[in-house]
Design goal:
- By secondary structure, the chain is an all-alpha fold.
- The protein has seven helices and no strands.
- The termini are far apart.
């Protein structure tokens, strides 16, 4: 179940509109109200599966998908990896996994695509908040 559920969620996470213009201008409150895009659905499903099944049951699949998407040549995949980390970090129960996620995000902060950099920084902030 974790493989199927998280696999589909990551597929959704990588479905990002390639339009660059205006993506950073959307008010966060407005975005939450009417954004039903596939990548937001994917993020919600990562949260759902990791919360419901538990980190121990999803750890292997989640880490493999984060690594696969986080090192992809497609910026949409790397963005999806950042969003998956943001959605799942609060459920991570071991320091080694947190360190691995943070290391990947720190590498993605230097990414060539501005949306990936933004998502990596946002995910790092969320991790700090969740793990406080």
């Amino acid at each position: 179940l974790p493989q199927l559920g998280l696999g589909m969620a990551f597929t959704f996470l990588a479905e990002v509109d390639e339009q660059e213009e205006g993506w950073g201008k959307v008010d966060e409150d407005e975005e939450d109200d009417d954004d039903d895009s596939l990548h937001r659905t994917g993020e919600a499903k990562v949260d759902f599966f990791v919360r419901k099944l538990g980190f121990d049951a999803t750890k292997q699949v989640l880490q493999a998908l984060i690594q696969q998407y986080g090192t992809s040549s497609r910026w949409q995949d790397r963005l999806g990896a950042c969003m998956a980390i943001r959605a799942s970090a609060e459920y991570v129960t071991d320091a080694v996994s947190i360190d691995g996620m943070a290391t990947l995000l720190l590498a993605l902060v230097k990414d060539g695509h501005m949306r990936v950099r933004h998502a990596a920084l946002f995910a790092l902030g969320q991790m700090c908040h969740d793990l406080d």
